[in-house]
Design a protein that fits this description.
The protein has 253 residues and is of the alpha+beta class. 32% of the residues lie in helices and 28% in strands.
C-alpha cells in the first residue's frame, strides 16, 4: 500500500487528542468540556483549529452541544437510520452524475469514527479518499471515504481490494471516481448492505474552503457504512452544503 508522507491530518490529530481525553476519563461521560478559549490554551492550539475538531467530534456522536451549558460528553454513540446503496454522485446528480475530483488519496490510522464503524484496531492502516463532487462548475458535496484494512478486504472481499488498488493507480493519472462506486462495481457477485444516517451541521473553516462556502454555511451530513455480511468494508461521510442538489430519501417500515 502506498503511504502518504502525512500520516494524519492536523485536525484528525487534534480530534484524537480530545477523544483520548474522553476515553481515559479526563472528560468522563456527562461532563462538560472547558470553554473554547480555555481548552485551546490547555491544548496549545488555535481556536479555529479546535472548533474544527470539536465539530467532527459532535458529528461522530462523542459530544453534544447544550444551549446554556456548552459541549458535553455523550454516554454512547447515537443510533442511526436511512439506507440506500448508490454512489452519491449518481444519487444527487438529477439525471447527470456529478464529477468526482480527487483531493487526497492516502492511508490513515483509525479515528473514533472508523474504529466504531469499521471495527478497525488502533494501529490499522485504512485507505482514505477525500473528494469534491462538482456539477456545472459548482462544488456540490465533499466526500470522505475509508476502506477497511487491506488484510481484512483480501479475506472478505478480494475483488474490492484489487479494484481499489487498480483505481488508485488510475487516479494518479487523473481519472477519479468515488470509493463507493468502486465497491459497487466490484460486487456484482457479492451482496452488500448499507446503514446510514442524516444529520444537520455546519461546514466549518476547512470544508468551507474546499467547497468555496463560508465556514458557517448550514449543511447536511450523510454518514454511511457498507457491509459484506456482518463485516463492514467501507465507511463514509458526505457533506452537502445549502444549495447542493436535492438528496432523495426513501423511508419504509
Amino acid at each position: 500500500m502506498a503511504v502518504s508522507g502525512q500520516r494524519r491530518r492536523p485536525v484528525v490529530a487534534l480530534y484524537e487528542r480530545i477523544a483520548d481525553a474522553v476515553h481515559d476519563g479526563t472528560y468522563p461521560p456527562g461532563s462538560t468540556l472547558p470553554s473554547e478559549p480555555k481548552l485551546a490554551a490547555e491544548l496549545g492550539v488555535s481556536r479555529p483549529a479546535l472548533r474544527e475538531a470539536l465539530l467532527l467530534l459532535q458529528e461522530d456522536g462523542l459530544l453534544t452541544v447544550r444551549r446554556g451549558v456548552g459541549r458535553t460528553v455523550n454516554d454512547r454513540p447515537p443510533r442511526r437510520g436511512f439506507e440506500h446503496v448508490q454512489p452519491l454522485e449518481e444519487l444527487i446528480g438529477t439525471g447527470t452524475p456529478l464529477r468526482v475530483r480527487a483531493l487526497l488519496r492516502t492511508v490513515e490510522e483509525p479515528t473514533d469514527f472508523t474504529t466504531q464503524h469499521l471495527l478497525a484496531p488502533a494501529r490499522a492502516e485504512l485507505r482514505f479518499w477525500e473528494s469534491v463532487l462538482t456539477g456545472e462548475g459548482t462544488a456540490a458535496a465533499l466526500s470522505h471515504e475509508w476502506a477497511a484494512a487491506d488484510e481484512l478486504l483480501d479475506r472478505v472481499h478480494p475483488e474490492f481490494a484489487r479494484a481499489l488498488r487498480a483505481t488508485e493507480e488510475r487516479t494518479a493519472r487523473g481519472a477519479a471516481v468515488s470509493m463507493l462506486s468502486v465497491l459497487l462495481g466490484a460486487s456484482r457477485e457479492t451482496a452488500l448492505t448499507a446503514h446510514s444516517g442524516i444529520t444537520a451541521t455546519l461546514l466549518g473553516r476547512r470544508r468551507g474552503d474546499q467547497l468555496g462556502r463560508p465556514a458557517d454555511t448550514p449543511a447536511v451530513l450523510v454518514t454511511q457504512v457498507v457491509r459484506v455480511g456482518e463485516t463492514p468494508v467501507l465507511a463514509a461521510k458526505h457533506m452537502l452544503p445549502t444549495g447542493a442538489p436535492a438528496l432523495p430519501v426513501l423511508q419504509s417500515h
